Amino acid sequence: LIWLVLGRRESAVVLLATKAYQSLAAGPWLAALCRPGTVVAVLQNGIDQVERVGPLVPDAEVIPAVVLLAADRVGPDTIHQASAAALDVPVSPGGRIVAELYRDTSMRVRVLDDFRTAAWNKLLINAVVGAMGALTLRDISVMSAEDLRAAALPLAEEVAAVGRAEGAAFGDDAASRMLDVMATRAPGHLSSIAADR
């Protein structure tokens, strides 16, 4: 959990970067850091960040964020970053404040009209690539193995179908395109779900 202040006092931004299941335990910290007008950017996986964190900070603006970053902890104080860092946030006053926070950094921030699709796309990646990595204890290049791709495709298609039903703008080929991208992206990177296992 990191607290940052942008310029004026009324532009306080809290970045909640715990695991989703740790949100409730972070409640006392959030209560101490937040006041009316605070923006809480929830940098957690999932599609329910606002519903999960909002009740903990009723006077703050909760901004869900999709973090796209392949990074691995390789030692107690060492991280290997295998891809460029990117952050997606929805169009809103708080989303623009979060984007401004990273304006002069290497973090690419997109403020999206269709944040729902971005969130579901990340869930599609996590549900499939994370599951395959956790089951095999292999990095994400496991998606290039034809037998595992064949096993992963029905799962990916099911997640994409649920995403479409929930309003994500997925084409009919969303599942296979995601698998194609992940088969060559950040070789050697172990998904956080596999790392947790």
| Element pattern in H and E | EEHEHEEEEEHEHHHH
Distance between the termini: 23 Å
Give the helix tally: 7
Secondary structural class? alpha/beta
Structure description:
The chain has 197 residues and is α/β, with parallel strands linked by helices. Helices cover 42% and strands 20% of the residues. It has seven helices and nine strands, in the order ββαβαβββββαβαααα. It has a four-stranded mixed β-sheet, sandwiched between helices. Strands 5-8-9 form a three-stranded mixed β-sheet, sandwiched between helices.
Question: Which features would summarize this protein structure in a list?
Answer:
197 residues, 42% helix, alpha/beta
List the helices and strands and how they pair.
Blueprint lengths: L1 E4 L6 E5 L6 H11 L5 E4 L6 H5 L7 E4 L1 E3 L2 E5 L2 E4 L4 E5 L2 H9 L6 E5 L2 H22 L9 H20 L8 H11 L7 H5 L1
Gist of the model:
With 197 residues, the chain is α/β, with parallel strands linked by helices.
